[in-house]
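---------- Forwarded message ----------

FYI, see the Glycoside hydrolase family 1 protein record below. Original note from H. follows.
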Amino acid sequence: MVKFPTNFLWGGATAANQCEGAHLEDGKGLSIADAMPGGKERFKKVFAEDFDWSIDASTNTYPNHTGIDHYHRYEEDIALFAEMGFKSYRFSIAWTRIFPTGLEETPNELGLTHYEKVIETCLKYNIEPVITISHYEMPLHLAKEFGGWQDRRLIDLYVKYAEVVIRRFADKVKYWMTFNEINGALHFPALSLGMVPSTGSTNKQLIFQALHHQFVASAKVVKLAHEINDELKIGMMTIYATGYGMDCHPENQVANMEKGQEINGFCCSVQALGEYPAYTERMFKKYGVQPLEMAEDDLALIKHHTVDYIGLSYYMSTVIDVIDPDAAKVAGNLTGGAKNPHLPTSDWGWQTDAIGLRIGLNELYSTYKKPLFIVENGLGAIDVITEDGKIHDDYRIDYLRQHIEQMALAIADGVDLMGYTPWGCIDLVSASTGEMSKRYGFIYVDKDDNGNGTYNRMKKDSFDWYKQVIATNGEVL
């Protein structure tokens, strides 16, 4: 087994909207996550033509409103992370705790104070905070009144928010990411762009225009952060799904190449290399997208203020088959594809492919030459408390072990890998379904899909396993 770097950032990851709860406490405003109903039909409802971000508790549940009560229990939770030996904790700041509608001129001091306490709790245990500035939780007001990121005014509103939190915490937090899974906008614009069918989410012209606004906003924040403190590291964050053609048919290989460029490559090229990729014109033509509206200095900003590292989520690989339109299909993390006959499938239909992680890390590093940080990876599964009062999640341990083994091989290949923060290190509300029963954590939270439970925490078998992994720096798996 290849040794991991001595400063490797082992840890775990969460998002404010999926774990904090307290959705209107201490001056917090409503976010888009607060308006997303729970249950397996969550995405179907948000995709509906008549969805308008209204909250209707008489017909829907809203599990994000309570999350796992991490807002009040962060000290207990971070103490458990420290017991596992975390070197880092990736979490997000809720934009609406700082600027409730996004339009305020003065930030909410109670929100800033809360995150100051969270950060100081991490530092007390020598845990490096890794902060996502925007993780699927933009102010609901900006989605309803501005139509989300298609409106260029969001650039300055976002930069205002980012500047407040970076200036406040620059002396305590080194690692930041601007937007979570920015490329997810190409499949589900509601989460990252705040756009639904009634506000243009089915219009590719508006989607790419909105993405351009995020690229500019990200570049401005990179510039700003480096001016505040040139030792800060500002990253992007992307979904990465290694892709395969179903067979050696050239048409399947071309289709896989094009899908990889769009999903894995487009946003990385802009944010990490500082320019729109060569295939942009061909891709825009495919979707009927006309040249985007840009301010005079947009491309210069993007060119000169690229990210310092690439954060990525990796859960599964994808297969494309354009030869057989009837090929069996599987789901995935905002992107699915044809069923791979060589891979197992999770409880939620995602195919797991540890070797694909090594392939993806090599592809990313050889293309962009930026340090990589795996900030999401994990197995969503149904966990059952057995008669001995424990949760024996060997299936999760096997999943993580296989991926860590492939990370080591990627390091041996020469990949510069900064760290690994599995998702979510404690059970939380699923972004895709709003369920609690889709569990990822090393720590079980007693809450069911209907919000019932004590919210008490309990260690799973994977807790002690991961503790050993970190203690041995990945040598004992």
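H. also flagged this: The chain has 15 helices and 14 strands.
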